[in-house]
Design a protein that fits this description.
It is a single chain. The protein is of the alpha+beta class. The strands form four sheets. Strands 8, 9, 12, 13, 14, 15, 16 and 17 form an eight-stranded antiparallel sheet that branches. Strands 1-2-3-7-6 form a five-stranded antiparallel sheet. The longest helix has 24 residues. The protein is globular and about 60 Å long. The relative contact order is 0.17.
């Protein structure tokens, strides 16, 4: 299966296209968004030189499942998934912040904590915590949403004071973030997983705050296996996890964190295949059903274009 790393579609009514780190987003008549989950993969704010087969399909289908599973508590943008790698939905004016919520002290938060940090995005952290320890209550640590380069940590107070988001809209986003994380945690627990941390993005349409983009995928979330968590935590051992963190850790082990002078290590075919397998493993665990690989046509882009054009034509009737 050849990985899809680039798209250049031209749909009826197309106003613009935005090529993100992983997704390509097509604006249709300033009303709809066609979001293509490519097989690109990013870490440390850089896109890796090789795509990961089936990664886009995994991300798109997990996100679609969770958007459907949370639509009763938070309104969202999704209308349809006309292709395994595509979601079509309502266009909204996105807020320039990402709502990150953490149930456990791990990843970048742990790296900062280990270096003496006791306040993250305005949230005070207790002394004496250990890596992968559960917070008494989940904490929200927002970041600014950068078009290029690094997203920056920011506090709720700074977001409101700088006028990035109004106090009223932020309260809605905060409430939705906690409700989504609670629902995601419950769903994960039924599958033998712990939803460790995740991020959500919101936008506004017709004066209403709605959930946009993906949710609860391995690109936006971190999962631990519930079985063995307590034992590994007690021993100070690394947790078994399903997330993109293993890619970051592999890069760290190969002296790459996108610092000045860092050189991207070679991604071998074997390592690329192992990433693909890990993404599929997460899908099967969190969705609870076998992953069905999309028909491996010679030209995946042609399949996507055909499916999206058919949906748009039907939708415009």
């Amino acid at each position: 299966m050849k990985a899809l790393t680039k798209t250049e579609f031209h749909f009826d009514g197309q106003k613009s296209v935005y090529h993100g780190k992983v997704r390509d987003v097509y604006d249709i008549n300033d009303d709809l968004m066609v979001m293509v989950a490519t097989d690109r993969i990013s870490a440390f704010d850089v896109v890796l030189p090789k795509g990961i087969p089936f990664k886009g399909q995994v991300l798109n289908q997990i996100a679609a499942a969770f958007l459907d599973a949370t639509a009763d508590i938070v309104p969202n943008w999704k209308l349809a998934t006309p292709d395994p790698m595509v979601t079509v939905g309502l266009k909204a004016e996105g807020f320039r912040v990402e709502m990150i919520i953490r149930g456990y002290l791990t990843g970048s938060a742990w790296r900062e904590y280990k270096n003496g940090c006791r306040e993250l995005c305005g949230v005070k952290l207790p002394d004496g915590m250990r890596e992968n320890e559960r917070f008494p209550e989940p904490i929200i640590t927002p970041t600014t949403k950068a078009d290029e380069g690094h997203d920056e940590n920011i506090s709720k107070e700074e977001i409101i004071a700088q006028g990035i988001v109004s106090a009223e809209d932020y309260e809605v986003m905060e409430r939705y973030t906690r409700a989504l994380f609670q629902r995601g945690t419950e769903i994960a627990a039924k599958k033998g997983l712990i939803l460790v941390d995740t991020k959500y993005e919101f936008g506004k349409r017709d004066g209403k705050v709605i959930l946009i983009d993906e949710i609860h995928t391995p690109d936006s979330s971190r999962y631990f296996y519930a079985e063995g968590y307590e034992e590994k935590f007690a021993k100070g051992e690394p947790q078994r996890q399903l997330s993109k963190e293993f890619v970051r850790q592999w890069l760290i082990d190969h002296n790459f964190m996108n610092r000045p002078g860092d050189v991207m290590p070679e991604l071998t075919d074997a390592f690329v295949d192992s990433i693909s397998d890990r993404y599929i493993e997460l899908y099967e665990h969190i969705v609870g059903e076998k992953f069905e690989r999309a028909a491996s046509e010679a030209d995946v882009a042609a399949r996507i274009e055909r499916n999206v054009k058919a949906w748009l034509a039907e939708h415009s009737k």
